[in-house]
Amino acid sequence: MIRLALTSHAVAKERSHLFQVCRALVHLGKPGIVLAVVLSGYAGMVLAVDHLPDPAPALYGLAALFLTAFGAALFNSLMERHRDRSMQRLAQRNAALQLLGVPTIATVAGGAICAGLATAWQTLDPQVTVLILLALFSYVVIYTRILKPASPWAAVLGGLPGALPVLVGSAAISPDFSSSVYWLFLVLLFWQPPHFWLLALDHLSDYRLAGIPVLPLIANPAVTRRAILIGIGCLIPSSLCLCWFGTCSLYYALGAALLGSWFLIATRASLHGKHPRPAFVLSILYLVCLLTLIIIDRAFP
Ligand code: HEM
Ligand SMILES: CC(C)=CCC/C(C)=C/CC/C(C)=C/COP(=O)(O)OP(=O)(O)O
Description:
membrane, binds protoporphyrin IX containing FE, 0% strand, mainly alpha, binds farnesyl diphosphate, globular, 15 helices, Tetracycline Repressor, domain 2
């Protein structure tokens, strides 16, 4: 009886530890960003063939995207752990790092990236592996290692790894890129700086303490506000080009115009009221709605 009680206690303790390890990996792996990146990859797949993609290459492509993006996010958290310690916003991420330790996180990150690259190389066009390697290098080396600690414009070039998943998704389904795929790639490039600068305005003290030269710290807030509105102003016509020069329907164009106007007007009001957080949340809502609109428009033409 006692042995049974001791065994069940040990099993419960093991389960609790496993749950804590998984939760820590979720905190370190930027789940929202990774899932939204996978959604943008799926939108690239749908635009590649103008209908729902075949399930097999789509699943292999999404699995490769998820694993490599998750691994890249883990490496980013590892590389920034000394700076992240002074950021209140990242308290859970810092606790997760203490729980798991650098070797474990590096092993999981390397394993996820190798699994993702092997999946792409074994099952899909070689272009997919090349594009994923470019996204990995541009995020982990160019953005995280070089630009983010040094330049207030890091979010502009840092947009490359965030936009490449659209091309990764398209290449997983078809070797040729359609004009719509290129326009969606541009939409992601224009969307990311406003998305980040809104967050940076909301967490200015964090970035000041961490010594990260975000635009609102280097330039005065009016310059940042203008840069955000210019970014959104470029984003809206680019999203409409998926209809003007691409294959998306007029119904999509109407939806994209309404979404973009909502994003621009609400962001302008949010910045005018000196409360950037609602506009940051709206930037995510805007992107998820736009990607969903594209998928529905092409899946059911
Ligand atoms: C220059 C590129 C980008 C930068 C600098 C950036 C920055 C960030 C940061 C710092 C957060 C965390 C916010 C918080 O802790 O409250 C965040 C959240 C988020 N980002 Fe971005 N991001 C970028 C690109 C992207 C891309 C490409 C996507 C999707 C396609 C995306 C989707 C999201 C989502 C869904 C969240 C909310 C969930 C979460 O906190 O993980 N971001 N972004
Ligand atoms: C296929 C592949 C590898 C794709 C990469 C996709 C990906 C993870 C893009 C993220 C883009 C980005 C700059 C995020 C912010 O990091 P941050 O360091 O500014 O965020 P933080 O402040 O929360 O750490």
